[in-house]
Predict the structure.
Amino acid sequence: MMILNASGCLDALTAPTIARSLDAFVTKTVTPLPREGNAPPRIAEVEHGMLNSIGLANPGIDRFLSHTLPRLGELGVQVWVSVGGFATADYADLCDRLDDRPEVAVIELNVSCPNVDDVPASVGEIVGAARAATRKPLYTKLSPATADIAEVALAAQKAGTDGLSMVNTILGLALDGRTLRPCLSRGAGGLSGPALKPIALAAVYACYAATGLPIVGMGGITSGRDALEFVAAGAPSVALGTILFSDPTAPGRIRVELANEIGQLGVGELDNVIGLAHAKPPGPSEISSRTAAVSG
Ligand SMILES: Cc1cc2nc3c(=O)[nH]c(=O)nc-3n(C[C@H](O)[C@H](O)[C@H](O)COP(=O)(O)O)c2cc1C
């Protein structure tokens, strides 16, 4: 079981102690060129979560490789690098440039960013190109905003992904109480936090059943109980996002709470919980046929 941060929700260089409380640190998504992101305001609070429209603000791959990555490598925590692009070739190029860097443990392909068609064919194409460009383990980060997420996960698996990270945010809108104009300058933004949890759980549940791939589950995790539910749905590892803004001590707290939850369940090790939600209880038909056998 690993506890990671969700991409974009922790800056390890300004908060190294929090980063070291994780089993691995995931970077903000890096793109080929530097990006300033969208105009402010780009964060809004909503019921049971928040909206963001950061717009992949990052220094770009050149500066990331020369300045950021060497410093991340000195933190003493495993580093996962999240990459994003606007064409398949961008992903291949980013992976190629990360391939020989010893600081990088895993590359996370953010295929859920704007201007990249979120359709199975495109995800398969991106993963295939990334796979050909690097020997590093690849995790593909999926969007929940798709008709059939298991189909997308299968396309990523077929193209050679080693694991799945899920889910990214889903579009939401908040209106200003007085003006009734959107709170975010861009209009809608990505919804994260507790409101996302049932959607994320459904996605993990479906993709575990379809692929059996290792999954990093995320979406509204704030407690050990939440983490336990993701493990039961099929994610042996979890990532913390929005909760880190209000409770930077969440990784340690959730680890303790999770251990307590496992103890109370009386199932032994955490490994015994992975995918437990898929275990079939006796269904109504079995019960009725048993009753029929008894009465007949
Ligand atoms: C402020 C903010 C910035 C984010 N930036 C990224 C990003 O750069 N790349 C990415 O893949 N996901 C990004 N995400 C999505 C998170 O990694 C995560 O998938 C999502 O927030 C759901 O988890 P949570 O409900 O625990 O926050 C961002 C989320 C937030 C709130």
User: Anything to note?
Assistant: The first strand starts at residue 3 and ends at 5.
